[in-house]
Amino acid sequence: MRNGKWRHGRGAIWCMLLACGVGCFVAPARVGLYRVRPQRCQACLCLSLKNVSFWEVAGAAANATNSATGSYLEEVNRTATKFLQSRAAVDREDAVANLSKHMTIQGKLCLVLGGRNLGKTLLKEKAISRLKANVNILSVDMRDADMLGKGLMTALDLQRQNSLGWARLAVEMLRAIIQLPVDYALSRIRGAGAAAKEVLDVAVSRHQINVNNFISQSISRRKIPSIIIDDANLALPGITGEDGSAAAKSAPQAITKWTKQTGQASVMMISSEFGYPFRLLANGLALSTIGRVIVIGEVPKYDMLKMLQEDWGMDADLANIFYKYFGGDIYTTKQALDMLMDKKDKFNPFAVVDCPGLPSCVEDPEAMAHLENMAKQGFSPVRNVKTDKGARMIAEENVGGVIKEGAITFGLPDIFTNTSCEWAVIPSSYHMRLKIADKLKNIFPSGTDATAPRAVWVRQLSKPRKDGEELELIGNAFKITASVVDVDDLKEAIEKKEKLTIAASKIDVYRQKDGGWVKEEKMSASLRDTDEADCYGFVLPSAGVASA
């Protein structure tokens, strides 16, 4: 009996030692990834909303190469497809740098918004690759087959399990091995078995494979836990409002705890739906919890045209007409190219992107008021984001997005200048702005450009000889009759009207503010209606180049 007790006691001790050793088989967190799977364009909306034959422009390009139009486009398409397969990021350095920076800020929730197919996932991967060794990444893509239909917390726990690979299997096998003697001890000696089970549960719970364990282990190893959810809009049920489920509520509560309350982790949620913030709000997340909003836009004009010509093989005229309609959206441009090859001379550029929510927005008076502003100047101020039903409708239909002053944007016009509004609604893409204008064209006078200011007046200014000298007026103000929307357009219009021999890019443009002149630094800055007194000013690079 005595020897029997000793054997049973020795077995219980052995079980406890094995249980305590579970942690030895869990691999330490790897540096960097657990898993790796404009920019709104600075475009000028200088085209009037009229039919432009893409097929004729393509035909002219084909004639220059002594080939048929179809054959020419097939070659362009083949080259474009090969370029897209290379997954090259076309001049998105600012976006990548900002994403990488905000992936490492503990205690902050960063919401990344952008229209569909703008390369957000590619930019995310580029940003992750730059992170240093002091960051642990848990990255989940809600479009993956094993994530579809799952709630956010379930998906994060599953991704944590997938990321550990063999370590997860080792823990499960070890627990199964240990469980056998523990069950035997429970059946034979109640006290020893209970003690062994308690030690087993404690040991295994320390290494439970879930997102909370990921955060605690990262912090214990003095690393920054960074959680990234791509296509986060798929992670919360419901389309426009609260679905009432506990699962929908638990994720925002957990995110608030990880960021705002405890400051433990960095959380980045990436969404293609501009209405996603309203969905988070409906499911219990306070807007104040969102520490930063980044709006991913399209490729800038210069880089997009360069890519279309050098990497896709388009001639300059064909590249320009694609850019004028589709801006810096690479994926939509590729869709348009495919459709052009299919439809030929019947191709309609406004049929490339389907937006089923736009007609409903046009029929709503509050949304309609915003759409008119968006078509004309690229944005519309929002005075009260909680009560403005029109702005919310535009966001929920993914026609546009509501952003707050302080959001990081790329290539957008200066939205919050000379206004008390802290919020604004913007179109989801450059092409969407054109679709809005095309939809509204019947309400504008015939022959006018719905997207352009009604009148832009300019006047030449003298170039200061010394720093600090005031600009002086030269000659009289004159009206720009060409369709212009931003500073880039205005420079080109001045060059043509004045018949200058210098490049338009060398002209400096100024606006009037508080009785003085302020230089327009951004080529994409939107223009406003002016008159002879409240006109824009321009300075030429050297005297005598042109007379005003």
Report on the architecture of this protein.
The protein is of the alpha/beta class and 548 residues long. It has helices at 2-20, 54-64, 69-85, 93-102, 120-129, 152-164, 166-188, 190-205, 211-220, 246-261, 276-282, 301-311, 316-326, 330-343, 358-363, 365-377, 389-396, 430-440, 487-498, and strands at 32-33, 109-113, 135-141, 224-230, 266-271, 290-295, 380-382, 400-404, 423-427, 456-461, 473-480, 508-513, 516-519, 536-539. α2 (54-64) packs antiparallel against α13 (316-326). The N and C termini lie far apart (114 Å). The model is unreliable at 5-50, 202-207, 238-244, 444-448 and 543-548 (pLDDT under 50).
Task: Give the SSE map.
Blueprint lengths: L1 H19 L11 E2 L20 H11 L4 H17 L7 H10 L6 E5 L6 H10 L5 E7 L10 H13 L1 H23 L1 H16 L5 H10 L3 E7 L15 H16 L4 E6 L4 H7 L7 E6 L5 H11 L4 H11 L3 H14 L14 H6 L1 H13 L2 E3 L6 H8 L3 E5 L18 E5 L2 H11 L15 E6 L11 E8 L6 H12 L9 E6 L2 E4 L16 E4 L9
Helix pairs in contact: 1-7, 1-8, 2-3, 2-13, 3-14, 4-5, 7-8, 12-13, 16-17, 16-18
Could you write a compact summary of the structure shown?
It contains 19 helices and 14 strands.
Features:
single chain, transmembrane helix, P-loop_NTPase, 548 residues, 5 domains, transmembrane, disordered C terminus, Archaeal_ATPase_domain, 19 helices, alpha/beta, six-stranded parallel sheet, Rossmann fold, five-stranded mixed sheet, 14 strands, membrane
